[in-house]
Amino acid sequence: LFDTHRTNVWQGTRITITAGPTREAIDPVRYISNHSSGKMGYALAAAAQQLGAEVTLISGPVTLPSPPGVNVIHVESAEQMLAAAQAQTMDVFVSCAAVADYRPAEVSQQKIKKEQKGDDAQLTLVKNPDILKTIATQPQPPFCIGFAAETEKVRQHALDKLQRKQLQLIVANDVSDKQIGFNSDNNAVTVYWQDGEQSFAAQSKQNLANALNELFAQHYFKNKP
Ligand code: CTP
Ligand code: CA
């Protein structure tokens, strides 16, 4: 039924994907962010488009070209990413972005000067909204897929997030293995759902994106009312 050569597995499906890091301003020239390259999210968007989906990619600051045929919305902060996600009509939400968990409590309107701070400086942070959880717990939520990069107890943390964020699927990768994951061109993951799991061996993010889209589509169409 789901042969891998089909080009239309997603036909007629509206998919929103978040990708890349977010950037949380400290002052006009400084920010807090992380090392996410956006490669996995961009590869997922390109693959989903090729498989017939109508794809919107909400992207944090990355250096990647827009995938052909994909509607790309560029954002910087987690709050902007949430607003962009909430503005979409979607059947499937794929939350691949490495969202900054915290942002500076105050953004200085002027460049912060050392003279004001002295030898020690503190930055007060506040928690960012959980974009995925917000979308997954709204009334009539889309089919929601999360990602989890973990350094230990990968299965336990992934299943906990699946439950806590009310997701249909979560894609987990072990980032203690330096060869794969963040910033790499390759990735190995395990996908978990309520009563099952499937592992994908290390491979290019392009190949993995195709395989993941096939699995996502199987689950989406199986669970679709
Ligand atoms: N996520 C999100 N908004 C946030 C934080 C995370 O949408 N503010 C999404 C990520 O895109 C990912 C999933 O939630 O799909 C899990 O992200 P992760 O950082 O692993 O989980 P957290 O809930 O932030 O927990 P922690 O970082 O403490 O492990
Ligand atoms: Ca986090």
TrEMBL record:
One of its GO terms (biological process) is pantothenate catabolic process. GO terms for molecular function: FMN binding; metal ion binding; phosphopantothenate--cysteine ligase activity; phosphopantothenoylcysteine decarboxylase activity. Residues 10-215 form the DNA/pantothenate metabolism flavoprotein C-terminal domain. GO terms for cellular component: phosphopantothenoylcysteine decarboxylase complex. Its EC number is 4.1.1.36, 6.3.2.5. CTP binds at D101, K111, P129, D130, I131, L132, F147, K161, K165. The keyword Zinc does not apply. This is Coenzyme A biosynthesis bifunctional protein CoaBC. It comes from Idiomarina aquatica. The chain holds residues 180 to 404 of 404 of the full protein.
